From TrEMBL:
Keywords in alphabetical order: SH3 domain, Signal
PANTHER family: OTORAPLIN
Organism: Xyrichtys novacula
Position of the signal peptide: 1-20
Plastid among keywords: no
Keyword Signal: yes
Sequence ranges assigned to domain SH3 in this UniProt record: 39-111
UniProt cross-references to Pfam families, sorted A to Z: SH3_2 (PF07653)
InterPro entries: OTOR (IPR042801), SH3-like_dom_sf (IPR036028), SH3_domain (IPR001452)
Biological process, per Gene Ontology: cartilage condensation
Protein name: Otoraplin-like
Superkingdom, taxonomy of origin: Eukaryota
Length: 129
């Protein structure tokens, strides 16, 4: 009786792996509060609406609050992107979804982490489901 459950679990994992799309890297390094980027670096307020161009990014609306988890370290001529998730009772459907957004569309309002670590990004940082 256990085997059908194991088979279903394996098929489900394979199904998810097949549908993941590897996207171009946005940067080679990122700044985080810890090695896993699990601590919130700061809180920011959205200054302008931002429509996500692909699944790596999140949509933002002016006035929303965003938890910032990492900041991509730009290379020369590259844009600066941060990753985070929306914090708002009005947008519960977006809470917990982490994605990238341009640093220029937000204003950092409160810093939580002064000590940060710079770590290399990996391909999994830029996968789309």
């Amino acid at each position: 009786m256990r085997y059908p459950l194991v088979i279903l679990l394996c098929v489900g994992l394979l199904h998810q792996a097949v549908w993941a799309i590897r996207m171009d890297k946005l940067a080679d390094n990122k700044t985080c509060g810890d090695a896993e980027c699990s601590y919130v670096l700061s809180m920011a307020t959205v200054l302008d609406d931002f429509i996500a161009p692909d699944c790596r990014f999140i949509n933002l609306r002016r006035g929303q609050m965003v938890y910032v988890y990492s900041k991509l370290t730009p290379e020369e001529g590259a844009g600066v992107f941060w990753s985070g998730s929306v914090y708002s009772e009005r947008y519960v459907d977006q809470m917990g979804i982490i994605g990238y957004f341009p640093a220029t569309v937000v204003k950092e309002t409160q810093k939580f982490m002064e000590d940060t670590v710079k770590i290399p990004t990996t391909d999994t940082d830029f996968y789309c489901d």
